Structures are given as structure tokens and as C-alpha cells.
Amino acid sequence: MATELTDYRALLIDCDEVLVDRDSGIWAALQPLLEGLADTPSKEQILAEFRRINQALYPRFGELGFGGLLCFAHRQLAESLGLQATWEEGMSFARSAGDWTLFEDAPGAMLYLRKFYRLLVYGDRDSADRDALCERLGIAAEDLLSRAGNPLTDRTWLAAHDLQARHVLQVSTPAASMLASDDLCLIRRGESEHAQPCGAQFCASSMADLVAQHQLSLRR
User: Tell me, what CATH number does 55's domain have?
Assistant: First the structure.
């Protein structure tokens, strides 16, 4: 187990909610559906229900693909709210993923961190959106890895990239704090999350804070 940020050779960074503001994108794309509600639940309730539905659908990723999962999740969310949604509305919602914005600190952090690490991004997208996302993040297409697999347990993949699992620091959200890994950095952007114990070897309030911590580590 490494003890300093400078001990790692690669970062495996969750795309959504670490680099890409997925929740804001989903919330914006859900507004046409939510207009049909007389009494709308809170944003937190809606997003929590959407995440639950999407996670339950994920075993069908190979069959549905990323856009298909979003489309089915949109339809099931509508049903859970007592609403009706057409497939066209579901597909329009799914296509909104290409418009999800990066967090403000993500581009600069990626630019800095690639000077010191191999940057791997963990996230799923439809093929039509992959190249644009990779360009925005400044990574090669081969470094955008599907969540359907786990490269850290794939010895062939690790050998091909001249890495060992202990060389790779996972950068994720507090929802990943149950990951069975000592090599984990949590990005905790929400104020309520900041009040909780870290639960990982490294914690940062943002990608910009991770950069600042790396700079301190260089000086030690």
C-alpha cells in the first residue's frame, strides 16, 4: 500500500460526479418530465431514485448499452412518479448525456495530473459520445474504460500497460467508500459529505484540492 500521492504511477478516475457533473445534467434533462407533477419531490429525492433505478438496471448494460440504460431508467422513473413517458422522450433524455458539463476544476486538474500519472477514466458512454468526452478530458480513447469491467483485476491488461494494481490510485466519490481497495482517494464535493469521516486513504474536496495535495506531497 502506498503512503503518498507521489507513490502512484496511474490514476483510475471515476468520470461521473468526479470529472463530469452528471447529477446536474440529469436534473436538467428531467425537467420536461417533472413538469407533469403537481407536487414535485426534492432534487435530492429525484436523483436518489434515479440512481437506484439505474443501478438496478446496470446488469443489463451489455444488452442495452449506456443510452439504453438511461432510456429505461427514465421510463421507470416516470412510472414510479405516476407519470407516462414515451420512448421518444426517453431517447431524448438519454442523448442529453453528451451535453453533461465538466466540473469547473476538472480540465485544469487533468492537465496538471497528466504530467505525473497515466490518467485512466472509468465511465460509460455511447460510441457517438466517447470521442468528444475524451477530447474534453484530454485522454486517449483507449484510456476511457467501461465500468462493466475491472482493469485492476485483469492481469493481462495490467501487464500490457506495465502496471501493477498497487501502482494505481482510484479516484472516486463517497458512494465508492465500500470499494475493497486501500488505494482510494475520495472526492467529496458536497458540504454534508465533508462532515463525514473520510473512509479512505486520501480525501479531497475537489479535483483542484487533489492537485494541491499532490503539490504538497512533492515538497516532502
Answer: 1.10.150
Strand partners, 10: 118, 168
pTM for this prediction: 0.90
**CA pair distance 84, 113, nearest whole angstrom:** 45
204/135 same-domain check = yes
CB 191 within 8 Å of CB 35: no
Spatial separation of the C-alpha atoms in residues 205 and 211, rounded to whole Å:
11
Residue 148 burial by Cβ neighbours in a 10 Å radius (0-12, 13-18, 19+):
exposed
Do 35 and 109 fall within a single domain? no
The per-residue pLDDT for 14 is 95
Low-confidence ranges of the chain (pLDDT < 70): 1-2, 176-181, 191-197
Pair 180, 193 in one domain: yes
At 174, which CATH number?
A: 3.40.50.1000
- Whether 135 and 42 map to the same domain: the answer is no
- Sheet of 168-172: strand order equals 144-145, 118-122, 10-14, 168-172, 184-187, 202-204
Residue 103: closest CA among 205, 5, 212 = 205
Q: Which amino acid is at 200?
A: A
Alpha-carbon distance of 59 to 63, in angstroms, equals 9
Residues 6+ apart with CB under 8 A from 87: 71, 75
Strand 184-187 and strand 202-204: the pairing is: parallel
Element (H, E) at 34: helix 22-34
